[in-house]
Amino acid sequence: MSADQPARVLLADGQVGLVRPLGPADTEAVLRLHTGLGERDRYFRFFGPLPSTVDKLAAEITSAPGECHLAVGCFLDGTLAGVAHCERIGDTADAEIALVVDGNQRTHGIATLLIEHLAAAARANGISRFVAEVLAENAKVIRVFAELGLRYEIDHEGPEWSVTIWLDGEDGYPDAFARRDEVAEAASLAHLLRPASVVVIGAGRRAGSVGHAVLANLAASGFPGSVEVVHPVAEEILGVRCVPSVADLAGTPELAVICLPAEAAADAVEECGKRGVAAAVVVSSGLTGTAAGARVREAVRRHGMRLVGPNCLGVLSTDPSCPVDATFLARRPRAGNIGVATQSGGVGIALVEALTGLGLGLSSLVSTGDKYDVSGNDLLLWWASDRRTELVVLYLESFGNPRKFSRLAARLARTRPVLAVRAGSGGTAQRAAASHTAAAATPAVTRDALYAQAGIIAVDTVAELVDVLAGVSWQPLPRGRRIAVLSNAGGAGVLAADACEREGLTMASLSAETAEGLRELLPAEAAVHNPVDTTAAVPAEKFGQALQIVLADPGVDAVIAATVPTAVGNPAAALADVLPGADKTVLAVRPGQRERVSPLCADGPAVTACYDDPATAALVLARQAEYAEWLARPKTDASPLPEIDAAAVREFATARAAEREGWMAPAAAAELLRLAGIPLVPTRYARDETEAVGAAEEFDGPLAVKADAEGLLHKSAGGGVLLGVDGPLGARDAYRLLLTRFGPGLRGVVIQPMADRGRELLVGVRSDPVFGPLVVFGLGGVDTDLVADRAARLAPLTGPDADLLLDGLRSAEALWASGIDRAAVRELLLKTGRLATLVPELAELDLNPVAARADGCAALDVRVRLERRKPADPYLRKLSG
């Protein structure tokens, strides 16, 4: 949904409104809004009494939108509550803005929402500044402008102040709108997770039904509010009063939980909306893709409700001030600090069972199901303001707004770990790829890049999720990747060391002092270098002392302690005594234990996680280390790129896309790179052999001649590249040869001087309409498909993102040791990311090969594909559905 389409929005108090463009059909509503203003509001709006021409003003506001005129309105339950409109000033990029909000709705943040949406529409129409005249005494409107987060200036002279607002600044805007989003979302989701009253619709009298289970869990949860049941004939179920319809309820409940067949569920949602119910949980399945499902969506939109589901497990909160369990879980989970959002009810059930078995508890659980409304993004905002939630778990099968997700997840991950299960990794090949970049940019690659950049700890299975949750729940994050392994069973230690190296961890080099201390403590046959083998004959007390010696080594960031019980003693008991005073990460391994992971406890609570396999402990440490490294990364890049004419880049690409979608002509692609500051070897384009001769005369030395032919996707593989061509006559002959090969499909040839190819790399962009542009980096040229060594990150790229790309290849260590110019390649990646961000029409970019040498780098070939797209505003607050 773009800025010029209707959008469901959250007000500051949690109400759901609708912001949409205004048109001629809204004239009467705009007139009623203005004539209904109080005397002081009229004074502030018109600097005096209501003008006699207000009907003409209403007509002007609702005139058809265009590049010079834009107007948006906010509607609450179908009634217009506020209007913002702007008029372009002449041929400038400035527009004068005016704003009016119903005096009875002024504290709900409507004015701010209207300006945000108007600004998004204005930016899309080439407007870069808003200007306004405001009475000096109109403190409320001045505060709205000041708190937007956009750069602004106020001329304080006289009784009427001039305000200028720049629409393209982002320094404080993301944080400002995120704070507003947080406040509104917390107020809105409180209807679901802290309701004052609940009605269960479809709670059967039979104990085996889903509705009956939901009502039983709600009653057992200790929910302090009022509870009613809608049932056509029963008078009471489980001691709860029943009424035959929503209209017969004693009061308007805050939350409805609906457990009915699909058609009846849609009826119930509509009835709840008419009654004024603020939120609903639709457990029912069979709605999506049906007319009944469409009715549910429409009812939610029309009545301003929040909705979880359909086809979901329900919602749960263990907040002691308002515990509520509106799920059909078999047993109530423990109260704790883990927040869970899951699209799959089955995954939610499995996770609750596993965590309960470990003694870990939930702060809240929301099963989003088919996600008609409430999504993972909403819950990330909820948890940002929920101090009870210290760990967040996500199981997401789809992303409605992945750019917002990335932003919210990264913001949350700065304060607490966020974990996610990778879902849908199999069978992810896209349609037949037209370039190497497209072949590399599968949905799984894009999702993994999203998780990595947002600081999310990603795992592949629910079992791994539980493993990592146990590690981060009971131990601090490791300070680095240098791992020591300590065991009383040599085989377990060797397996742990192997597992660490597979996971990209480093076996720590123990200092001479550490080795000497261990040698003095342990039997002569013990191995005192990493991995340390204390031998099975060592009692628990000495094993604990050995662990303390290893932990004291400054070259050790974390320890895996693998133990087996013997007749001499159980070293695991010593771990429980040592760990409460340790300041480094220690994970335990006890081969042969029945549980995959279990808490290792002292006399009280768990002190660390104990795993049945060293490989599991190594995986957990690796995920923890990745998260710790992400936390340590700088948020911004201290080395800005050289300035380019961003407007010229956008204008050129937009014009080319308007002329013709698809692959750009080689000359146009080269010009786009030039405007973006991306290095390309000198390139000339020739449409016939005469032009080929003329182009060749511009260069000295041997030439490369490349075909531009219909259907030729990969030039080298398709016989479209001739190297070592000698001079103008050679260029003529090369043209004739290519004409023979490709016939009428030959549109022309590209002529370049032969370049030192150095190390051949690939840099590309693949833009997804939902996820946005993905930057791909890897080995190029003939190695592209043979080796398939690539890394990917979503644009825009920061300096740290570019560094992760450079170091993300399997061959990275050898590549940069070869002496090529890393700084030049890094700059190329950043420029490519900037181009992808500047040009939303850029569907695909392939720089392959890029010749990287000791003195710089340059693309030897470029292919660009454009699609007509409207730029999406990343800072537009709106709900899904």
Automatic annotation (TrEMBL):
Record key words, sorted: ATP-binding, Nucleotide-binding, Transferase
Domain ATP-grasp: 670-721
CDD domains tied to this protein: NAT_SF
Gene Ontology molecular function terms on file: acetate-CoA ligase (ADP-forming) activity; acyltransferase activity, transferring groups other than amino-acyl groups; ATP binding; metal ion binding
Record-linked Pfam families: Acetyltransf_1, ATP-grasp_5, CoA_binding_2, Ligase_CoA_2, Succ_CoA_lig
Domain N-acetyltransferase: 17-170
The organism's place on the tree of life at top rank: Bacteria
Protein name as annotated: GNAT family N-acetyltransferase
Organism: Amycolatopsis dendrobii
Taxonomy of the source species: Bacteria, Bacillati, Actinomycetota, Actinomycetes, Pseudonocardiales
